[in-house]
Each structure stands twice: as structure tokens, then as C-alpha cells.
């Protein structure tokens, strides 16, 4: 059934499909956990739990991605500093915006389910986007909901982890000249992203190149296995 969401108080959101987001988060988790023992870069908490994945930047900003039947999904979260949508919170002088106003039952029940799960950071959220199988949607409002700051820049996090691991390895073994000029191989990175949640240890080793010897590839593989 086609629904013209613009006529019922919703705005379409330009995001990649949920399964692609899930794959990107899986790659990010694998690389960061593989690098953690040899990198000074803080490892983000990006772990899959049941049907949802959780991202936390360590500074109070977080997001959770829930995969649902019938190709549906929900993406919710909060930017601690910049979210201007207050939902299920009481701030003096700030009007609450119901980010679930009029949403279908499958969407609302997913948020309620998160709120009852001790592994989730809900129900205190500032945005809740729903994917109906074709489009990402949100309730129509005119203020910043903090989405941009609460969701992971997966490309940036992966590069930061790779380069941080290389620097840490160089600090550990200054005689390794290959580490000084380390640049991740573009073809290896493309293959890594293309593999998504199905990446292998070989994908990780290729992405880390000479740095792989200083990383915990097995830990990275255990992290990505949670997304399968």
C-alpha cells in the first residue's frame, strides 16, 4: 500500500538502506576492535545486540539501529549537546516534541522494546527515524534533532583506527620503516566495505597491511560476528 507520508505529518530522510547501514557499522566495529590493542584511538562502543546495534561516542551521543521484519527498520538516538527535540524528558522552559507522533505501531513498538531492554539507551531519545521498506521517514518538525552528531561517521572512524594503529605500532617498533609511510590500500578498503558484515580475516589483514601484525584480527572477527 502506497502512503503519501508528506500528507500525514512526516518528512522523508535521505539515508542509505538499513542493511547497508548495518554493514557499515559492522565494518567499523571490526576495524576498531582489531586495532584496540595497538591503537591509542578510543574504541567506540558499536556492538550488535539481538536485533539492534548500538553506537556510543563516549561523550553522551549515541544511536541504535533496529532491523525489523518486512525490510523495516528504526534508527533512534540522541546528541547530548545539540538535540533540540526533547522527548520523554523534562527541561524547564523547553517544549517537548513528540518524535513518535502518529507513527505506525511497528515503529512505536520498536522504540518501546528498546526502552525495556537493559542493553539499550532508550527511551530518552531525540530522534526516531523509521524505514517502511522503501523510505526513511521522521515526524515533521523544524528544529535540529541532533541526528548528524549522534550517528557514527563510519568512514572517518575506520581511517582513524587504521592510522592510529599504525602510529602505535611505529611507537612500539621504530625500526619498521614501512609503518612510517603507511597508507591503507584503496582496493583493500573497497573490498572491506563491499564485504560488510561478511568480511573475513583476510579483508582485515589487507586493510591493515603491515600494521596487521600488531593488531588483534581475531578480536575484530569476534566483533563483526555479532552483526551476522
What does this structure look like?
36% of the residues lie in helices and 15% in strands. The protein is of the alpha+beta class and 228 residues long. It folds into two domains: 45-150, no CATH class; 154-225, no CATH class. Strands 1-7-6-5-4-3-2 form a seven-stranded antiparallel sheet, sandwiched between helices. Helix 1 packs parallel to helix 4, helix 1 packs antiparallel against helix 8 (217-225) and helix 6 (186-195) runs antiparallel to helix 7. It starts with 9 loop residues before the first strand and ends with a helix. 42% of the residues are buried. Residues 1-7 and 37-44 have low confidence and may be disordered.
- Overall shape: it is elongated
Strand-residue proportion:
15-25%
- In angstroms, what separates the terminal alpha carbons? 30 Å
For the sheet with most strands, the description reads: 7 strands, antiparallel
Task: Report helical residue fraction.
Answer: 25-40%
Structural domain count: 2
Q: DSSP helix count?
A: 8
Specify Rg, calculated over alpha carbons.
Answer: 19 Å
Structural class: alpha+beta
Total strand segments: 7
> Could you state the order of secondary-structure elements as H and E?
EHEEEEHEEHHHHHH
Q: For the largest beta sheet, what order do the strands appear in spatially?
A: 1-7-6-5-4-3-2
The residue-averaged pLDDT reads 82
Low-confidence stretches: 1-7, 37-44
Amino acid at each position: 500500500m502506497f502512503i503519501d507520508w508528506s500528507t500525514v505529518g512526516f518528512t522523508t530522510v535521505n539515508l542509505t538502506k538499513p542493511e547497508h547501514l548495518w554493514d557499515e557499522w559492522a565494518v567499523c566495529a571490526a576495524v576498531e576492535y582489531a586495532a584496540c590493542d595497538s591503537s591509542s584511538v578510543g574504541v567506540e562502543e558499536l556492538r550488535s545486540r539481538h536485533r539492534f546495534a548500538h553506537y556510543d561516542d563516549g561523550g553522551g551521543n549515541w544511536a541504535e539501529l533496529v532491523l525489523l521484519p518486512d525490510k523495516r527498520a528504526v534508527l533512534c538516538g540522541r546528541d547530548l549537546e545539540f538535540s533540540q527535540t526533547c522527548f520523554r524528558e523534562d527541561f524547564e522552559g523547553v517544549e517537548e516534541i513528540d518524535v513518535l507522533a502518529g507513527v505506525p505501531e511497528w515503529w512505536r513498538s520498536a522504540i518501546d522494546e528498546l526502552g525495556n531492554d537493559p542493553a539499550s539507551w532508550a527511551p530518552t531519545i531525540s530522534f526516531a527515524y523509521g524505514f517502511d521498506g522503501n523510505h526513511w521517514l521522521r515526524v515533521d518538525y523544524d528544529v535540529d534533532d541532533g541526528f548528524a552528531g549522534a550517528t557514527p561517521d563510519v568512514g572517518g572512524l575506520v581511517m582513524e583506527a587504521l592510522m592510529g594503529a599504525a602510529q602505535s605500532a611505529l611507537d612500539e617498533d621504530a625500526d619498521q620503516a614501512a609503518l612510517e609511510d603507511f597508507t591503507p590500500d584503496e582496493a583493500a578498503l573497497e573490498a572491506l566495505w563491499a564485504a560488510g558484515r561478511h568480511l573475513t580475516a583476510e579483508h582485515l589483514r589487507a586493510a591493515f597491511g603491515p600494521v596487521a601484525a600488531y593488531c588483534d584480527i581475531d578480536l575484530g572477527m569476534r566483533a563483526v560476528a555479532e552483526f551476522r
